[in-house]
TrEMBL record:
Gene Ontology CC terms, in alphabetical order: SCF ubiquitin ligase complex
Superkingdom of origin organism: Eukaryota
Official protein name in the record: F-box and leucine rich repeat protein 2
PANTHER family: F-BOX_LRR-REPEAT PROTEIN 2 (PTHR13318:SF44), PARTNER OF PAIRED, ISOFORM B-RELATED (PTHR13318)
All residue ranges annotated as the F-box/LRR-repeat protein 15-like leucin rich repeat domain in the record: 3-97
GO biological process, one term: SCF-dependent proteasomal ubiquitin-dependent protein catabolic process
Source organism of the structure: Pipistrellus kuhlii (Kuhl's pipistrelle)
One Pfam family cited in the UniProt record for this chain: DUF7885
């Protein structure tokens, strides 16, 4: 089920999906910015989450945290999890989840750390991240 960019999707929607879509295998919630860890809890505790859900896309769900990953540990059939630009999800949270579900392919992107003010000695700087060589 592709609900990507359906900006009015909330945790209540996930509760209804958990109840009325027991055969749900793939769910895209990318850019559904109202989804929280609580919605993921309901999804992961449902029969579809625990038994059938194989793919979950949560790209740009800004309210998702490492707690959602803990909830997803109940989803034994999960094969792929997309977490691009989930700014509150950490590498440590992903590592903990993968220890419980080592077969899950997790795709995540972490923006690089801003370089220090003085990069490469005496190079001329254009901005905080660029150096004229």
């Amino acid at each position: 089920m592709d609900l990507e960019e359906c900006v009015l999707i909330t945790d209540s929607t996930l509760i209804q999906l958990s109840i009325h879509c027991p055969n749900l295998q793939a769910l895209s919630l990318s850019h559904c910015e109202l989804i929280t860890d609580d919605g993921i809890l309901h999804l992961s505790n449902s029969s579809c989450g625990q038994e059938r859900l194989q793919v979950l896309e949560l790209d740009n769900c800004l309210l998702i945290t490492d707690m959602a990953l803990e909830h997803l540990e109940h989803c034994q059939g999960l094969e792929r999890l997309e977490l691009y630009d989930c700014q509150q999800v950490t590498r440590a949270g992903i590592k903990r989840m993968r220890a419980q579900l080592p077969h899950v392919k997790v795709h995540a992107y972490f923006a690089p750390v801003t370089p220090p003010t003085a990069v490469g000695g005496s190079g001329h700087r254009l901005c905080r991240c660029c150096v004229i060589l």
